[in-house]
Amino acid sequence: MRAVEAVVAIRRPVVCNWHMPTVPGYHGQYLRIDLSERTSHQVPWPDGVLRNFLGGAGLGAWVLRCETPDGVDPLSPESPLVFVFSPLVGSPLTTSAKFAVLAKSPLTGRINDSLSSSHFAISGKRTGCDAIVIVGAADGPTTLVVTPDGVRFESAETEWGLGSRETGQRVRDRLGGERAGFRVAAIGPAGERLVHFATISHDARHAGRGGLGAVMGSKRLKAIAVAGDRVVSFSDPGRLVEISRDISKRSLGPATAKYRELGTVDNLVTFNRLGSLPTRNFQAGVFAEASILSPESLEADRDRTRTSCAACTIGCEHIFPLAGAGQEDAGGVRMEYENLFALGPLCGVSEPRTVLAASALCDELGLDTISTGASIAFAMECAERGLVDIPGLRFGNGDALLAMIDDIGNRREWGDLLAEGTRAAADRIGGDSQSFAPHVKGLELPGYEPRALQAMALGFAVGTRGADHNRSGAYEVDFSPEVGRVNAGPETIGPVVRVEDEAVLMDSLILCKFLRGVFEDRVAGMAELLRPVTGWDVSPEELRETAGRIVTAKKAYNIAQGWTPAEDTLPRRFFEEPLGEGSRQGALLDPDQLAAQVRAYNLFRGWTAEGYVPEDRLVALGLA
Amino acid sequence: MDSEGASGVTVEFFGIARRRAGRTRIVVCQGLESTRLGDVLLAAAERLPELAGECLDGSRPQDGYLANVNARRFTVDPDTPLQAGDHVLLLAADAGG
User: Fold this and answer.
1) What pLDDT digit, counting tens, does each position of A143-166 carry?
2) Tell me, what's the pLDDT at A203?
3) A295 Cα to chain B: minimum distance (Å)
4) Which domains does chain A have, with CATH numbers?
5) Minimum distance, in Å, between the CA of residue A71 and any CA atom of chain B
6) Which of A306, A246, A257 is nearest to A94 (CA)?
7) Hey, how many other C-beta atoms are within 10 angstroms of the C-beta on A554?
């Protein structure tokens, strides 16, 4: 295969509509690329779609629903992969340089939207489209180069097998280096090997959850490079600058101090004290050695540095050197609560150096740290129960953790089975392993113990992409005086829906959730900043309806892909094994109570009690 | 560090509150059988003035902060009754990550 192939078969749009009047904040079209046919063309958004779905996860849900055949194999050429930008990208609003990636998840078989922040969002939108839809599959390793002039299909033969960071650098160098302005999203070896929780990476950040890297790998798409000079207009630039300054100022205040000064790693100690730190595959809610993984301990013999995403004033990224003080520089790794909990307490590992190395290895291979840690923790429990014979793989064995991460990323031996996720692994291992396989709909649980955080338990159960703390922020309800976090009643439903709606709006506009605290009224605040971008006279009430529409669109997608009500629950462990030590000792989920809450949630959403979406609701939301 | 076993109410600090306090905990309102959250927080701020303003607003947690009693109940109500031996956790309301 030639190293660089010429521009081929670009099906130009009939009208090059970046010169057409469109809604401010948008280009008015998406780019559809067929890797099998090596063609591309622009598709204008139908009337009303932008206002109804906004951008990011919302607009992605709309286009994915349009483009996905019912029952499609997520790793088949027919399965679309969608990159979506947002109306705020390119604006001066802090944290707005974000994009969403969507596909049918190979891990869950359900909708998956994964968000990330980097210059890829800014450069991607500057190509002149609001989204990039990729269908088909290339006949060999390929890099897509997308600019306003069209799409090039280049060979990625020489990058195949490399980590995402090195791939990105090589592609950028080949395309002209820094001056050419290309930004690159790429997969690592795990994506190439179709690990079901492989990530898509860029600028050392990841669209992490749900295996979108495997979808990209199934298309033999190693990387996407984007650059351009197409900028959108804004309806009221003066007002937008004014709002942006105000939000930036507030983003430097106390509401975000935790993220700036400590990072989310600080959650570990807090969650441990509250008995809600998942430990040893959710066998406990406290980890005796948690203090060893506190921010203070992690930085005891190493100087961490702090950085931020593109166009962000918060700066929550805390980079920890892999080597200790006085040692040779071994690079650094960005640590957050989720990779810390998943590769630490969940696997019973407390040695900071091991946890940092494990996180760096996941980054290099392109693995979602939550699903990786959860899959290994699950295997550790299977091994301790005698269900599998994996030498050395036991809770607390850091060397075994590191070896298994490498085996998963390269699909070797037991790693090949764990690369399918805990649900599939439990199906193969058998026994009662499915009862403690830590997933909902196939997506491994994040670091929130559901027996101690029972609003979060409901959020996990009903989440359209599975157990997830970003799509349902119900832990906010648990961590509030609003309702009790154990054995709460129907009063939980409204707040759980409210925070899910707020999350889906932030994921669609797109804004970082760490800005939550700067808004007195989040939905009103989002409406206020959308107005000068788009010119729409959008009210908070309209945005709340938009949120309900997007959540329902995701639900309708799942129903079309085979969702059944039985999926909206948690693993049996959480109903049968009370939490042991800790402040929530004895806490247990009641299956009847959770089922009742799920039914109430469904009715609150305007669905049937079982969770199906009635036709009249689809019509009312413009989804029919 | 104050001993955990002393009578009174133990205030435990997390996150920014821990960083500002420069310690993990403090015992206040010693000698009282019962008290209120507001009095406990005022006593903590008196001993640790670094907390005032950013983490505490008089007798209440500052906006963006919460109190939790005995790692069970979250509250911001200064009238929340407390008893000797109780633990008050002071932490950021934004628990996400």
Assistant:
1) 999 999 999 999 999 999 999 999
2) 85
3) 9
4) 17-226 (3.60.9.10), 242-435 (1.10.569.10), 454-569+590-620 (1.10.599.10)
5) 33
6) A246
7) 27
